[in-house]
UniProtKB/TrEMBL annotation:
Signal peptide: 1-21
Name the record gives this protein: M48 family metallopeptidase
Transmembrane regions: none
Organism: Shewanella vaxholmensis
Limits of the Peptidase M48 domain: 64-245
Amino acid sequence: MKSMRLGLVGLAVVLGLSACATTQSPTGRGQTLLFSAAQMQQMGDASFEEMKKQQKVSSDKKLTQYVNCVANRVTAVLPDQTQRWDVVLFDSEQVNAFALPGGHIGVYSGLLKVADGPDQLATVLGHEVAHVLAQHGNEQVSRGQLTGVGMQIADAALGASGVSNRDLYMSALGLGAQVGVILPFGRAQESEADVMGLELMARAGFDPAQSVTLWQNMSKVGGSQGPELLSTHPSNSNRIAQLQQLQGQMQPLYASAKTQVKNQCVAPK
């Protein structure tokens, strides 16, 4: 059944790529999107199932509840409330997290040692969910198609065999660091996810000022290379400066939202 689903995705890719859609991202940036929402969801679903096979799911109930609490508050402020989000905590020292089309969020327990408290965790989750909201995965797969890599992605979907093929479309969805194939989001996409993620966390009642502290913490972890999250989400002075500049816009949203928050998320000790 799984190979049939992937085969249908690939067939749709091969037959439908001629319909190139040029649109605007939520922040007004031009995008070329060759894949439908249904195709991206199928790719996201398949990739998430693969991740759950590759990675150990955490059995820590308190940590899992905590991560779900933060994720649920962030996704509760998304424009589309018909989408249900599946949140999984992976038992791994990786300092990382991801979100995929189809409503999937993966968090590595190692991230919780760096993201100090719910506000900092919300920074990462807001950023990752923003990548999905802005269709950055679609952009990446479409870019690959236009440069020739996309046909390999389509072949992977059609064949559903061989780890290297699966890695191609998984990396295009932002999972490169986890599967060993790097296809990082560009600077424009990262900046966009920072801005959108900051607004998401503020509207969810998380303090956007903690985003600056989170990225400062990230830059101090893992020596000169930093944590794995930064291999595809580079932290630099420009990113931190942008987040600082946005505080004036975001703090009023946070002040309004925090008075209405009913479900407080408390990190287990």
